Amino acid sequence: MPIGRSIRSALVVALSAVIMAGVLPLPAQAAASGSIPALPAGPYPVGCSNIVQDFSRVPAGESAKDYWEGTPNGNTSRYITDLLADPANTVIVNLAIPNDSELFGSYAGQTRPHVLLVCYPTTADNPRPDYPLPTGAVVPHMQRGGEAPLFPIDNARYPVVLFSHGLTGSPISNDYISALRVFASAGYVVVAPFHGDGRFANVKLENFRDQFYALLHIKDFVAMQAVRPLALS
Fold it and tell me: For a pLDDT cut of 90, what percent of the chain falls above it?
């Protein structure tokens, strides 16, 4: 069996399991959940790359998160690139999707931008202000313009963590930015792409109708899951 077909088959099985988990009730013991204490911050302050945005571009009734997460508005696509105020100084990878329609469906052969947020350990006297987000969170000590990162030790080599957010999320949605800060404060350079899952598939599986839609459009979900590791690589 070709590798693309085997990957697609595995993804179909996995997606079907996720959908059925949303349809069928969980046993009481599986539904119970406990709290996990948050990891303490490390010894370093944290700085991050330029992700400055013009939030006045967000129409009334919409949310910046819709753009961060790639959630379309009907037939109109949305992605964080629509809000970037300084794209020339933002880390962006233009991802070439292989021309393999069996694995990437209708997205095969296309090029899709993937914005990256990079956070890293910085100096105790980093003068750059935090960048406030409309959610109330902040991007710590964010670079502006073409500013270079400020590392605690010049010319040192820092280990890299590749951070992939959850389905429909983004590096600055919910608590993900807090997780990036914890890793970076421990001395890691954290690279986090905005996957923009909504650009590839309708991932809002909130009811049986949505789940039925997902089964009918399984190729879109396969493509979304296949593009994620491609973007990470």
Answer: 61
R_g of the chain, CA atoms, integer Å: 19
Phi, psi of 206 (to 5 degrees): -100, -15
CB atoms within 10 A of CB 10: 12
Residue 64 near residue 133 (C-beta atoms within 8 A): yes
Q: 106: pLDDT confidence band, cut at 50, 70 and 90?
A: confident
Q: 0.85 cut: is pTM over it?
A: no
Q: How far apart are CA 119 and CA 131, in angstroms?
A: 13
Q: What are phi and psi of 88, to 5 degrees?
A: -65, -25
Q: What Å distances lie between residue 9 and 198, 217, 222, CA to CA?
A: 22, 14, 9
> How many angstroms separate the first and last alpha carbons of the chain?
24
- Round the average pLDDT of the chain to a whole number and report it: 84
Compute the distance between CA of residue 200 and CA of residue 70 in angstroms, rounded to an integer: 9
Please, what is the angle between helix 3-23 and helix 218-232, to 10°?
110
Q: Which residue has the tokens 């010894």?
A: 43
Give pLDDT, residue 193. Answer: 97
d(CA 120, CA 190): 6
Under 8 Å between Cβ of 167 and 196: no
> In this predicted model, what pLDDT tens digit does every residue of 178-188 receive, in sequence order?
999 999 999 99
Maximum Cα–Cα distance for the chain, whole Å?
57
Strands (E), the chain: 46-48, 91-96, 111-121, 131-132, 138-139, 160-162, 189-193
